[in-house]
Write a structure and sequence with these properties.
With 436 residues, this protein is α+β, with helices and mostly antiparallel strands. The chain is built from 15 helices and 23 strands. Strands 13, 14, 15, 16, 17, 18, 19, 20, 22 and 23 form a ten-stranded antiparallel β-sheet that branches. A four-stranded antiparallel β-sheet has the order 6-5-4-7, with no helix packed on it. The structure holds FE2/S2 (inorganic) cluster (FES) and fe (ii) ion.
Length: 436
């Protein structure tokens, strides 16, 4: 399969090995994850000089660190001496400098060598002197920050971050614009989930508009029952968190077709619709008032009128901007995938608005919810089935040939929101990267 990748992907179907072959996985890490822009984290995760956060880009252990001049650096988490990982903790503060726990080599926050114990006596006459570039911690080839969201690319060439994000940049604009102060702040810490299945199954599921009313129907129905009971005896506003779940049952398959997916170059995609609801409870009205004071009526209407449920930034990010949450995908192996589930606060918004999106975070995206568990079970079952000899192809044919293509975007046709266009678009991007 590796020698003939072009045969793995057809416009409406994909060979199963794409999800299960370890050699293909290695090549994906090299040609996709270790090449394109990957989300590292939010700048508010490392507010003070010396603060660092570790993360994985493809197969590379990396860290993101704040220097004294406030600049953020992304470095390989590796000591140039004998290769020790510089930071073994997930996050912390390095102090004045990084100091390797093995032989005490020290590095500035930007990775430059600061000191080696008895450098003069130890290295005189060797190939190393204090200016040798191989004595620095290696930086990511490129680092860019968009509205507080830090990305790195391990390749020195390729499109810049803004060009790469293209229209999917709306994910970060929509999230930040909804804050009265125009910025968000991370809620420490994130949930971490390891799924026993390929990373692409996660990405494909994120804008699979057909699955929610099947996979999440049981949870949605139970929530709907409770919601109705509460509505009978209490104020309607109190049932809002149940409404977040009941929508999975009340929005049936045929209704999902009313939504629309718009796919973009590089595999990105937007799901429009669904969360366009604007409740009129006192908390929302108080928030609206602050926003109008800040932005004026016209701009306020534009901001809250952005009708997006979900933005997928291929290959490693799924953003729910109106609810200030995102999931970062970190592939660990061909059948093991870590997702980090992060949540953000709108700076300047009332506490109640934060609590509401926190409820969604816990009810829909956390490892504790049945919503997440039901998705994970299907991912695992897909991976098991795809590892079998029961068939060679994965079908992505739903509404194939009916999508509306314009330069730079492919939209699902009216009443075809459950089109598998987003998956076809991801595989198209995948093929392009893999054949590079
Ligand atoms: S491995 Fe880091 S100082 Fe030796
Ligand atoms: Fe789901």
């Amino acid at each position: 399969m590796l020698s003939n990748l072009a045969k793995c992907v057809e416009p409406d179907r994909v060979r199963r090995e794409v999800y299960t072959d370890a050699a293909i996985f290695d090549l994906e890490m090299q040609r996709i994850h270790e090449t394109v822009w990957i989300y590292c984290g939010h700048e508010s995760q490392i507010p003070q000089a010396g603060d660092y956060y570790t993360l994985q880009i493809g197969r590379q252990p990396m860290l993101m660190v704040r220097a004294k001049d406030r600049k953020i650096h992304v470095l390989y988490n590796r000591c140039p001496h004998r290769g020790n990982m510089m930071c073994g903790d997930r996050h912390g503060n390095a102090g004045e400098q990084f100091r390797c726990s093995y032989h005490a080599w020290q590095f500035h926050h930007d990775g430059r060598l600061k000191q080696i114990p008895m450098m003069e006596s130890g290295y005189t006459g060797t190939r190393l002197n204090k200016d040798s570039p191989e004595l620095s911690m290696k930086p990511a080839a490129r680092v860019e920050n968009y509205r507080g969201f830090v990305f790195a690319s391990l390749s020195a060439t390729g499109p810049g971050l803004k060009e790469f994000l293209g229209k999917s940049i709306v994910a970060f604009d929509d999230m930040c614009d909804r804050a009265p102060e125009g910025e968000v702040e991370v809620v420490p810490n994130c949930y971490r989930v390891i799924q026993h299945s390929n990373w692409k199954l996660f990405m494909e599921n994120q804008i699979d508009a057909l699955h929610p009313s099947v996979v999440h129907q049981s949870t949605g129905r139970a929530a709907h029952e409770v919601e109705k009971q509460i509505a009978r005896k209490a104020k309607a506003g109190e049932a809002l968190s149940y409404h977040m779940l009941s929508a999975f049952a009340t929005v049936t398959i045929d209704k999902w077709d009313n939504f629309q997916t718009i796919s973009y170059p590089y595999g990105h995609c937007v799901l429009a619709g669904y969360m366009g609801l604007r409740p009129q409870d006192p908390d929302t009205l108080a928030y609206d008032k602050i926003m109008i004071r800040k932005y004026g009526q016209k701009r306020f209407e534009e901001i809250v009128g952005v009708n997006i449920h979900h933005v997928l930034v291929y290959p490693g990010l799924s953003v729910q901007s109106p609810l200030q949450q995102l999931r970062a995908v970190r592939p660990l192996g061909v059948d093991r995938t870590l997702t980090e589930i992060w949540h953000f606060r709108l700076k300047g918004a009332p506490e109640a608005i934060y609590r509401r999106s926190l409820a969604y975070y816990n009810l829909v995206n956390s490892p504790a919810t049945l919503i997440n568990a039901d998705d994970l079970e299907n991912f695992w079952k897909c991976h098991q089935g795809l590892s079998s000899d029961g068939g060679d192809w994965v079908s992505l044919a739903r509404h194939h040939g009916h999508d509306i293509e314009k330069p730079g975007e492919i939209s699902s046709a009216p009443n075809q929101g459950t089109s598998e266009a987003p998956m076809r678009n991801q595989m198209k991007a995948w093929s392009k990267y893999m054949s590079a």
